[in-house]
């Protein structure tokens, strides 16, 4: 009965077991995973837009090929994640409908504009860097289909981070003064939104306690944010850029960097639908869905024709 199943499930979680799609799971565990994985998938798909914006304007053939590969990887990540979410009993149509009607969230970070070429390198360095920091622990998520998808995603994400950092290094070491200023400007604009990506502070994160208990999240929002800030400070030094936070400094006692207050009102505004590019991003996804209707209809008609032929 339900109680026994629940006890067995809790014991498996406590023992560090992985849960598979066909195993019994509490309804709240299933819903929490479906929410997180589908939102993660949406983030990958919407995340293609800010960078896709620069494919036709990449400065060299090499940079264009790298950017194309990266944006394609993101499409692939979205597809593995939708497939992982489907194992929890939701259809892709339902998930996409939730995105298109504004019911499902996607990462706050993709609601900011990409104004210059330096934004592309900065997204690789900071945004993909933050994504890896958050996603490596998910490779050990208690839900096995999600954990397995994350392994490949993290490998590709590392390449994305390195290409971004490499591109910025080229501009900082060999660029004109204007190009260097462009990098600094991009870092100034992306820094705070990047550290918001980890989500609200632990004491204001409604899902954290339960998700940590279930091993869906292995490391808390604030802990990951701290690790990211500590790593970024060193990388910024090598690059020769300044992080736009006058309160950022090493704290010997904590063996970590202190940093200034995050503007959480901006974060809540952006995830509430009112960021600089929310309407544009959602509009682009809805348009792509509507423009693709004829392809879906044609594929269904084709499948239907074959079915009729088989039956005849
Ligand atoms: N952008 C948008 N929404 C966010 C963000 C963010 N950066 N951070 C938190 N939220 C939302 C949560 O989804 C939650 O809303 P919901 O209950 O309506 O779903 C609410 O804010 C409160 O946050 P938490 O209670 O902390 O939520 P949660 O435990 O899900 O933690 C986190 C949020 C850390 C983003 C988690 O869901 C996660 O690790 N997701 C997987 C990674 C991911 O989605 N990355 C996407 C960006 S990276 C990329 O795609 C390249």
From TrEMBL:
Gene3D superfamilies for the chain: 1.20.1260.10
EC supergroup of this enzyme: oxidoreductase
Name of the protein in its database record: 1,2-phenylacetyl-CoA epoxidase subunit A
Pfam families found in the cross-reference section: PaaA_PaaC
GO molecular function: phenylacetyl-CoA 1,2-epoxidase activity
EC number: 1.14.13.149
UniProt keyword list: Oxidoreductase
SUPFAM superfamilies: Ferritin-like
Record has Magnesium as a keyword: no
Superkingdom of source: Bacteria
InterPro entries per the UniProt record, alphabetical: Aromatic_CoA_ox/epox (IPR052703), Ferritin-like (IPR012347), Ferritin-like_SF (IPR009078), PaaA (IPR011881), PaaA_PaaC (IPR007814)
